[in-house]
């Protein structure tokens, strides 16, 4: 098992906490929060068990992305799912993207520890942190009334 430095662990715990909090606030659903937490626990257990460390065909990493993709597509194809998506709180959907900032900082810490390649960080050209910082600007503009929900949806 790989040991991580305390700053990396703290940043990723904060990021996960923010993601769960913003997801709950956006959906206003304890059921949704339970589903997301269950998914995170399953993926964490598989990861800790070394499940994703083996190269296989098809790649096991697809288990992280494929089921959520199927879930989202099914939500888009059903009336109940479209209602769920239409009732999400726009502010919290925007605020959710703030999670990108601590994730990128955490990746930078991990690169400094030699745990991930430098190419995954903003220092080497992965500018995902800009998405998080632009979310801050969009939230500010929305809260100040300079940017309406109608503009955001177009």
3D structure, described in words:
The chain folds into two domains: 1-23 and 89-154; 29-88, no CATH class. The chain is built from eight helices and no strands. The protein has helices at 6-27, 30-48, 62-77, 79-86, 90-96, 100-112, 128-143, 149-153. Helix 1 (6-27) runs antiparallel to helix 2 and helix 6 (100-112) packs antiparallel against helix 7 (128-143).
Secondary structure: elements and pairs:
Layout: H1 6-27, H2 30-48, H3 62-77, H4 79-86, H5 90-96, H6 100-112, H7 128-143, H8 149-153
Helix pairs in contact: 1-2, 1-5, 1-6, 3-4, 6-7
Q: How many structural units, i.e. domains? A: 2
Order of helices and strands: HHHHHHHH
Largest sheet: none
The mean pLDDT is: 88
SS element count, helices: 8
Sheet/helix structural class: mainly alpha
Number of strands: 0
**Which stretches are low in confidence, meaning pLDDT under 50 for 5 or more residues running?**
none
Fraction of residues in β-strands: under 5%
Helix content: 55-70%
Distance between the termini: 46 Å
Q: What is the alpha-carbon Rg in Å?
A: 18 Å
Short summary of the structure?
This protein is mainly alpha-helical and 154 residues long.
Structural features:
154 residues; mainly alpha; 69% helix; 0% strand; globular
């Amino acid at each position: 098992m790989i040991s991580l430095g305390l700053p990396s662990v703290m940043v990723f715990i904060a990021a996960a906490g923010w993601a769960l909090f913003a997801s709950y606030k956006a959906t206003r659903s304890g059921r949704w929060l339970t589903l997301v937490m269950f998914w995170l626990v399953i993926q964490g257990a598989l990861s800790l068990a070394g499940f994703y460390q083996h190269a296989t065909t098809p790649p096991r990493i697809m288990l992280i992305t494929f089921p959520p993709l199927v879930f989202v597509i099914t939500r888009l194809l059903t009336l109940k799912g479209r209602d769920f998506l239409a009732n999400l709180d726009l502010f919290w959907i925007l605020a959710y993207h703030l999670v990108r900032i601590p994730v990128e900082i955490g990746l930078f810490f991990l690169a400094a520890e030699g745990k991930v390649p430098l190419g995954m960080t903003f220092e080497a050209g992965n500018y995902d942190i800009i998405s998080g910082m632009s979310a801050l600007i969009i939230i500010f503009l929305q809260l100040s009334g300079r940017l309406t929900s109608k503009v955001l949806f177009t």
